[in-house]
Amino acid sequence: MSHTATSRPAVSCALLVISLCAGVTACGSDGNPLSARPYDAADQISFNTPDGRKKADPDKPLEVVAEDSDGRITDVTAYDASGRHVAGELAADGGRWHSTSPLAANASYTVRVSTEDEDGAPGRKVLTFDTGKPAAKKRLDVTFGPKQGTYGVGQPITAELSQPVKDKTQRATVERALKVSSTPATDGAWHWVDDKKLHYRPKDYWPAQATVQVRSNLEGIKIGDRMWGGKAKPLTITTADKVVAVTDAAAHQMTVYKNDEVVRQIPVTTGMPGYDTRNGVKVVLAKEGTVRMTSASIGASDFYDLIVHHSVRVTNSGEYVHAAPWSVGSQGSANVSHGCTGMSTENAAWFYENIREGDIVKVVNSAGDSMAPFGNGYGDWNLDWSRWRTGSALFGGTPEGPTPADRARLRPQSV
Hints:
Layout: E1 16-20, E2 39-40, E3 62-66, E4 72-80, E5 88-90, E6 96-99, E7 108-116, E8 122-130, E9 138-140, E10 142-145, E11 149-151, E12 157-161, H1 168-177, E13 178-183, E14 188-194, E15 197-202, E16 211-216, E17 222-224, E18 227-229, E19 235-239, E20 243-248, E21 253-258, E22 261-267, E23 280-283, E24 286-294, E25 305-313, E26 320-323, E27 341-343, H2 345-354, E28 360-364, H3 385-389, H4 404-409
Parallel strand pairs: 1-3, 2-8, 9-18, 11-19, 20-28, 26-27
Antiparallel strand pairs: 3-6, 4-7, 5-6, 7-8, 10-12, 12-15, 13-16, 14-15, 16-19, 17-18, 20-21, 21-22, 23-28, 24-25, 25-26
């Protein structure tokens, strides 16, 4: 991320250092140092920032050093009052530990240090300190989606950022702090759609009847130059039964599966030549019910202006599954629509009743283009798992990732 140079006071790049004197030996009553109670491992603790009455600079990494060459650090645990742990790295010789994740601003930290001396006697020291507020800053807030509720197993989780994040290291900081868990558990990953938007999905669809919880640990964390994490409201959603509707455009038939069992087969019509329905996996965006559809909305040369019932939207550009009583004679035998999937009023009413937002609608064997992964609804499932992970700042960077040409294809299309 580029920044315009401005005049500002020089900031020290020194580390926040805890000096640890580990040269004290303690012995148990039997003379065996290994049976001793832990001794106070640090008679003198010093920070390179002002002491107790003032606060540490959150912009400086945390470092713990064993000053006695005969002793070594065996473990360091650092965490703030909200339970967020600070990742760190311990040198092979035990002489130094330093934080590898940023400290939060305006937070209270506890640091637990374990040591041993040259005789193997254990030492312990618990330290506490507070960090101050950062200098002038931009706050990165996160808004999770969708709204709390129950969805189909194809529903992605979204994260909208209040500021653009372009740098890969900064993206990794953001992504590492955005936590998604599900019960039952399943593997998943974030994918950066653009500089301000991420989507999260599992490797496969969510389990049916699952609970998915989303939260952010970004608050107070430094992300980049003068950019710090803000608040985010946590999100909990649940999933319903697994419902997948597969339309074979060549066979003019939709097969609806519930928990992998066929529950209904429906004669349909899809897009005629020139208005071919998109192939691929789409996620139900909304149940809109009665919708007015006109030729002007898609630039069709032949005029129409219809009130359409039992309408289920699957793309932003206007592709629906809906009742089409005017084309019943072609349903099951020909494709005559302008890109939507049409069916009888009776079948459309059943479909509308049994489908929900987040369910899967898949089209195969159409002459149309493939559904774009982003930009025209939720086409996330049209990326295989290896390519999905390349959109993560934590897992990405392989040659299989989206190319500039791929990105250009992600623009919305019209039906």
